[in-house]
Amino acid sequence: MQAQQLQILQSMPIFGGIRDDTLEILLEDSVVISVPEGEFLFRENDPGESMYILEAGRVAILKLWKRIYYRLSFLSVGDCIGEMSLIDLGRRSASVLAMTDCRAIELTNDSLLKLHEVDLEQFALIQMNMGRELSRRLRVADEALFRELIQTNQIRPH
């Protein structure tokens, strides 16, 4: 199983350029969790102390507004979930609902801190990669917001 997990991590942008021995250190302390279809991996405003790598299944990212969930996106095998809380140490910014039976690798903040003690350079590279992934997602969200504002005439040319 760990060989398959290693392969999934190696294919992800967050772990781009990370050595195999470093990934093995992270996987040593990881836990694999199963989430049945229709159950939440976590909910908006839950404490965020780990990130998840989806090993099997598909999830929906949801925001709650006036007691109604709105779907922001779908994520599938190889996508990471919850990494933002490892950077800002904040609560979960959205809910994650299993659309199918799911299996995910949980990497905790503690396992990243352990890596910090063992190999600062590899830890820093993972942090930079997480920042890049969050930046990429922010660019997509900014573009979607801009297009919505233009289409609804909420902003005008300068």
Task: Describe the overall structure.
Strands 1-8-3-6 form a 4-stranded antiparallel beta sheet. By secondary structure, the protein is α+β, with helices and mostly antiparallel strands. Strand 4 (58-65) and strand 5 (68-76) form a beta hairpin. The model has no long low-confidence stretch (mean pLDDT 91). The protein has helices at residues 2-10, 20-28, 83-88, 109-118, 120-151, and strands at residues 31-35, 40-42, 50-56, 58-65, 68-76, 80-81, 95-98, 102-108. The longest helix has 32 residues, at 120-151. Helix 1 (2-10) packs across helix 2 and helix 4 (109-118) packs across helix 5 (120-151). The N and C termini lie far apart (56 Å). The protein has a single domain, classed as Sandwich (Jelly Rolls), CATH 2.60.120.10.
Q: Main β-sheet: number of strands, strand sense, barrel status?
A: 4 strands, antiparallel
Q: What is the C-alpha radius of gyration, as a whole number of Å? A: 17 Å
Helix percentage: 40-55%
Using DSSP, what is the number of strands? 8
Spell out the CATH superfamily. Answer: Jelly Rolls
Query: What is the overall shape?
Result: globular
CATH class, named Mainly Beta
Counting helices, strands and paired strands, the structural category is alpha+beta
Low-pLDDT segments, ≥5 res:
none
Under CATH, the topology is which? Jelly Rolls
Total domains, how many?
1
The CATH architecture would be Sandwich
> What is the typical, i.e. mean, pLDDT?
91
Q: What share of residues are in beta strands?
A: 25-35%
Short description, anyone?
This protein has one domain (2-151): Jelly Rolls (Sandwich). It contains five helices and eight strands, in the order ααββββββαββαα. The chain has helices at residues 2-10, 20-28, 83-88, 109-118, 120-151, and strands at 31-35, 40-42, 50-56, 58-65, 68-76, 80-81, 95-98, 102-108.
